[in-house]
Amino acid sequence: MNHGKVSKAIAAGLLALKKRIAAGKIPSSKIDETLNLATWNIREFGKARRTEAAIHYLAEILGQFDLIGIVELRDDLADLGRVLKILGPYWRAVYSDMIPDAGGNRERLGFIYDKRAVTFNGLAAEANEPRAKRGFEYLPEKSFWRSPYMASFKSGSFDFVVLTTHIRWGDNDEARRQEIEMLADWIEAKRLEKASEDKDLIVMGDFNIPSRTDALFKAITKHGLQIPRALLGVQFGSNLEKDKRYDQILHHPIYPENFTNAGGVLDFYGDEARIKELFPGGLTKEKFTYQLSDHLPLWMQINTDIEGQKLEQVIQG
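User: That's the sequence. What structure does it adopt?
Assistant: Structure tokens below.
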């Protein structure tokens, strides 16, 4: 990472941020052995130009991981470019197109990754709703407000597909539940395809699910998606108040040992009184969320050295 020549205020802010990151105890990843994976809703990233300080802080947080699913990436990618420049020449991004209507909110979904740790395998696509023939047309009965986005990657000996999503908030929980259930059905159909790119599917993003006991959580897990073991014991949520479970990482475990005991929520915020450590000029909590975010990154570390498990499967047939 190259923060370059920064002001004294930004340097002091970065040091304060590094202490908060260190408190999160994110283990370093090892090439061909482990991968640090995260999902992060960066509030309206690209709608309004971030300050120089915010760009450096975003890069510092993102740089703790190897592959990050980004939610609320907007149509203007200039700030993404500023962040990638600080992260360095090995970092890449793959992202969807934006949707200009009110439901799409001019948002993209995307992945940022360090190509030294993970390789993009070629698949990058939106999830299309099931269609039925009506006359001469093939039309969906319902639609995603923002189509989930997936891409294929390889790290070590582990090939996998990762899907990220931003489920609608909408006017009521029932409409949200229906969209979540439609996604759950789509994921299950994808998993059962004979020609599926890979059976290892990781699902993550902002599901707007308040808790794991909610009917909305039951909707996304109806076909067996599970919380990785490393995240079962996470004590607080990923919103700044730390009381909601809007963000999730889920999977269908094929190699249970892939998912280590390392995982959590990276709290770069602390509380409102500590905003001044990063922005000494002073910001309200609301304005802080438009500089960094109103969501905290949810992360986990994957064991990507699975050659042994593959050989065991060959022996066992």
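The radius of gyration is 19 Å.
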